Every structure is written in structure tokens, then in C-alpha cells.
Amino acid sequence: MKAPAGTSFLSSLLSSSPLLLAMFYQSAVIGVNALGIWNLYLLKREHRSFQKATLPPPFKDAISQEEFEQGASYGRDSTAFKLVDDAFDLLMSNAELFYKLPAKLYKLTSKLFNVALGSFSHSYLFSVCSDACSTLVKLPFSYYDTFVVQQKHGYNRITKRDFFLDALKYFLLRAAFLHPAQTYLIQFVVRRFGRSFPFAFFACTSCLLFLFAHVYPTLIMPLFNKFTPLNQDTLLYAKIQQLASKVHYPLQSVLIMDGSRRSSHGNAFLYGFGSNKRIVLFDTLLEQMEGKEDCIVSVLCHELGHWYYGHVTWMLVPTLFQLCGICFGARTVIFDPNMYGEFGFDDQNPLVGLDLFAQVFLNPICTLTGYLLCYVCRHFEFQADTFAVENDFGEELRHALVLVSKESKKILNPDPLYSALSHTHPPIVERIAAIDAQMLKRTKQAT
Ligand SMILES: [Zn+2]
Question: Separation of 375 CA from ligand 1 center, angstroms?
Fold first, then answer.
């Protein structure tokens, strides 16, 4: 890659001081460890919260003490496993930094496949090999989580065959579409536009984000799950139609997804553009709420609340801001030869540069902005619950949340700090209290 015309203030500052020359590498070591230890601390707090868990009053009629203890036991096991998993990740990140493993793999792929250093073929093969290595290293952890931890507590439904097939399908999809597109986009845009690349890169990635949002549910999800239309002669379909027309949702079809193939957790979501919208219900949700059509419709009403207030669009604003920050932030460092040298790379490949930029600067910053996004998401969740209350589904949604928590009992007593920083959904106890307050307010207004 050609060195940029003109020298940035940051580059001249770096080249003037030998101490600052190692700034990137040291920043990465400090950033990776500080973040890793902070996340382990949060997880440890969450793990401890399951040891002193007590059944909250709103669930006393719906969940027995024995069921609750089973949930807490699952919570303890899953957080204990996550602690080991995260500690291993931290160890691996340190090993990568210490032994400069990515740079070694970078040189090895060039030799192994006999491709020119820094060429498109080399960059693509390097991405695929890095992905294959991390997938293989993480697979035993994912296997243990699914077939030991979740299996023990009755949450796993996926077969071993489907588990490995899923991992393979995801890898092949990334190798066939994500890696070539990403490699081409980064190399082409940075080499073609030089220091003006952030404008073009931002425009391209924003378009790809919108495209992916459309393609994911229509083309990718059907590769992993089966979607069947809900029988239009059922009471449930009639109630969903009634609600959709009441809130002016341009509903085209209601689909049932076989979520039970993988997990017993129930869910529902909406997708589609313009006047071509669909509702998807997990078969597990229908199972959990069998014969309780109003409860299922109340969950959909909550989802329709997200659509009504344009939450998905609102969430795009901080995402685009973040993307913009990444593009312009990356420009200040990816043309600096020092950064590549510190991590053991001999040439300046923009694909590697962006990766190193993410490691040194982006991950710590994204953790902080992630906390902010969690706060915004929680506000949206309360707003969507209020929408359901305003559409006379308060009591049913309350009941549905209790039924959902019966299935996912581990979420009843989260650690407040862990929950505030990691969960995009507020604890169910808080949501039920907010629904109760909204219903009381409506009753007072009516009398
Ligand atoms: Zn929601």
C-alpha cells in the first residue's frame, strides 16, 4: 500500500518518540486485559447473584420453589461455564499478542498457497484461515455449552448432527460471501480512495447493512430453519389479523418457525419492508402458551410496539454513528507503518490495519457505546410494553412474561450492574412492575 501524502499529527508524534513507537502494541495489551478482566468481574457478580437468589413475589403463584431452584442451578452452571470460556478467550488473546500469531498465520498463508503478500487472494485466504482457526478453537466450548450445560437442564433440543452442520454452514457462508466481500471492499476502497476512503467506505458499508437486514430473514434464515404459514382458519390467526388492522400494520403473512429444533426458548419477531410485512412466531412460543391465544397476541403487540415507534430505525442512528466513527478513526492509524511493525507484519495491508485498529481502539470504545445502546434498548422495551398496555393487552402480557420466565427461570434475579450493562431487555420483575403501574394509571384515568 502506498504511504499517504502528507503526515498526520499522530504519525509525526509517534515517529518523534521511541516510547510512543510501541504505543499501539502496549495499548492493545492494556485494552484487551482491562476489558477481559472487567467482563470477568461482571460475570462473577452475575454468578454470585444465583447463589443468593430468592423467588420474586410476582412469580410465587406461577413458579414452584423447586422449579425456581432448578432455574438458579442452571444460572450457576451457565455463568460458571461462561467464566471459564471468557477466561480462555482472554488467555488466547494474550497468546495471540505475545506470540504475534496473526502475523505468523499471515506469512504462512502466503507461503502455503503460494500467493503474493498483500494481494486479494492472500488477504482472502488469510481471513478464511483466521476464521477457520477461531471456529475450531471455539467449537469444543460451544459443544460443551450445548450438550453438557444446556442438556443437563433440559434446554437443548439440537441434535449433534445439526450442531455440526450448522457450524459448517455458517463457516461456508462466511467463506463464500462475507470474507470475499469484506476483503474486496476494504482493499478496493482504501487503495482506490487513499486518505479519503472513510466517505466511500461509510457509504458502501451502510448500503450493505441495509441489504443484509433484508437478505438475512428471507434468504439466510431459511437455510437453518423451516417456516410454515399459520393456518388461516385458526382463532389465533383471526386475533393476529384483528390486532394488525387495529394498529394499521400491513400484514402479509404469519409464519411459524421451527425454533424447537435448536432450543426450547420461545420468541417472535417481525420483518419486511414497506407494505410487505410478516410476523414470525417460534413454535416454542406456541407450545409455552398453548390455548392462551391472547397471551401470544400480547407478545406480538409488544413487537408491534417496536414497529409502531420505529425502534429498529432509531437503533440504526447510533449504529451509523458508530460506523462513521470507525471509518474516520481508522484513517488516523491504518496508514502508519509503525502499527503494522509492532504486531509483526512486514507490509501494510488495509484489511490487517482495520483489524488491528479494532483490537487497539475499537473494542474498548465499542464496549462503552454498547452500554449506552443497552440503556436505549431498555427504554424501547418499556415503551413497547406500554404500547401493549395501551392496546388493552396489559394483563395478558403480564401473564405471558410470567410464562416466559417459567421457561427461562435463570433471568429472574440478575445482578443489577451486570444486567444494566449486558442485557438489552430489562429484568422481567421490573417490566411487570412497570406494566402494573401503567395499568393502574389507565384505571385511574378511566374513573
Ligand atoms: Zn421487545
Answer: 13
Distance 381 CA to ligand 1 centre (A): 5
pTM: 0.80
Amino acid 409: pLDDT? 60
Phi, psi of 159 (to 5 degrees): -85, 160
Q: Looking up cell 442512528, which residue turns up?
A: 317
> Which of 46, 77, 293, 303 does the annotation list as catalytic?
303
Active site residue 283: no
Continuous segment of H or E residues that includes residue 169: helix 160-173
Q: What is the mean pLDDT of the chain?
A: 88
66 annotated binding-site participant: no
Q: Which residue, chain included where needed, has cell 419486511?
A: 272
pLDDT digits (tens, 9 = 90+) for 108-132: 999 999 999 999 999 999 999 999 9
CA 292 vs. chain centroid, Å, equals: 30
Q: Is the pLDDT of residue 44 over 50?
A: yes
385 labelled catalytic: yes
Per residue in 307-336, is it b (16+ CB within 10 Å) or e — as a string?
bbeebeeebbeeeeebbbbbbebbbebbbb
- Cα(228)–Cα(225) distance, rounded to whole angstroms? 10
Annotated ligand binding at 381? The verdict is: yes
Instruction: Decide: 423 and 414 in contact? Cβ < 8 Å.
Output: yes
**How far is ligand 1, taken at its centre, from the CA of residue 302, in Å?**
6
Taking the CA of residue 437 as centre, how many other CA atoms within 13 Å lie in the half-sphere pointing to its CB? 9
Residue with cell string 499529527: 9
